[in-house]
Design brief:
Strand order of the largest sheet: 2-4-5-8-6
Distance between the termini: 35 Å
Order of helices and strands: HEEEEEEHEHEH
Shape: elongated
Number of helices: 4
Number of strands: 8
Helix content: 25-40%
Low-confidence stretches: none
Largest sheet: 5 strands, mixed, barrel
Mean pLDDT: 91
C-alpha cells in the first residue's frame, strides 16, 4: 500500500523534509538567542536611565572606553563651554528624519580636562554643506551640564564612513581620541548627549531618549520557526496518507471496471 514511498519523487520529498526540520529548529534557537540578547540590552538601557546622576569623572577618564553598562548613564559636569573649538557632525537626523548637524562643543572642566558635549541637532542652512552653519551659543561662564554618557563612535559600530577632506570644523564621527588629538587636550572617553540645561530656544534640538529594541518580535519568530518544524512531519504524513488513499481508490476503480467487462466467448 505504501510502496510508492520508495519512488524517486517521494525519496526526494522525504530527504527535503528531513533537512528542513533541523534547519528550522536551529533558526528558532538563533531567534531565541537574539531575543535574550535584545532583552538584556533593553534592561541595561532601563537600568542606566533609572540610575541617579553621578559626576562624569566617576565613570570615564581620558583614554577610557565607555562600556555597555555605562552607556546612557546620566552624568553631571561643571565647567565652561569652549565655542572656539566647537564642531558640527554631518549627516545627522532629528525625530522627523530631517538631515542636519549635531553640535559638538568641548566643555572644559574645572581641573582642565575636556568633556565632549553633544548639544543637539540643528538644521542645515541650505543645500550647501561647505560652510559652517549658524549655531546658537551655549550658556556663558561656569555652568553645570547634565547628559547621557555615550561611547565614542566608530565606523565599525555605526556604519558611518569617516570621510577626510571635510570643510573646516566639520566631522563625521564623535570620537574622543580623534578630538583629543585635534584639541591637544586631555579628553574624557566618550561624550555626553546633553539633557540639561535646555536651550533657550528650540535649537539646538536636544536628542531624545534612546529607543528600545523589539525583542518580542524575535520571540515570535522563534515560536514560528518551531511551529514550522513541527508542521513538516505532520504535512508529510498527511500527504503520504492522501497519496495512499488516492492510489487505493484508483486500484479499486480499475478492479471494478475489469470485473464489469463481459466475458469473451
Amino acid at each position: 500500500m505504501y510502496r510508492f514511498l520508495m519512488s524517486r519523487q517521494w525519496v526526494i520529498l522525504t530527504l527535503i523534509a528531513l533537512l528542513l526540520i533541523p534547519t528550522m529548529i536551529r533558526l528558532g534557537i538563533w531567534q531565541m538567542h537574539r531575543y535574550e540578547e535584545r532583552t538584556a540590552r533593553n534592561q541595561l538601557v532601563t537600568d542606566a536611565l533609572a540610575a541617579k546622576p553621578v559626576p562624569v569623572e566617576k565613570l570615564t577618564a581620558p583614554g577610557h572606553t565607555v562600556t555597555s553598562a555605562e552607556r546612557y548613564r546620566t552624568v553631571t559636569a561643571t565647567g565652561r563651554f569652549d565655542t572656539e573649538d566647537e564642531v558640527v557632525v554631518r549627516r545627522r537626523t532629528n525625530s522627523d528624519d530631517e538631515v542636519g548637524y549635531h553640535v559638538l562643543t568641548p566643555f572644559v572642566l574645572d581641573d582642565g580636562k575636556v568633556l565632549l558635549v553633544n548639544r543637539g541637532w540643528i538644521p542645515s542652512d541650505g543645500p550647501s554643506q561647505t560652510t559652517f552653519p549658524k549655531v546658537p551659543a551655549p550658556p556663558s561662564g561656569e555652568v553645570t551640564v547634565q547628559g547621557r554618557l555615550m561611547p565614542s563612535e566608530t565606523t565599525a559600530a555605526s556604519g558611518i564612513k569617516d570621510l577626510k577632506g571635510l570643510p573646516d570644523r566639520q566631522i563625521m564621527l564623535i570620537n574622543s581620541e580623534q578630538e583629543a588629538r585635534r584639541l591637544d587636550a586631555r579628553v574624557l572617553g566618550g561624550y555626553i548627549a546633553q539633557t540639561a540645561p535646555e536651550p533657550k530656544g528650540d535649537i539646538p534640538e536636544l536628542l531624545g531618549n534612546p529607543g528600545k529594541e523589539d525583542a518580542a518580535l524575535n520571540y515570535a519568530y522563534a515560536i514560528q520557526w518551531w511551529l514550522f518544524a513541527a508542521a513538516v512531519p505532520v504535512g508529510w504524513v498527511v500527504l503520504a496518507r492522501r497519496e495512499a488513499r488516492d492510489r487505493a481508490q484508483a486500484a479499486t476503480k480499475e478492479q471494478d471496471a475489469s470485473e464489469a467487462e463481459p466475458a469473451t466467448v
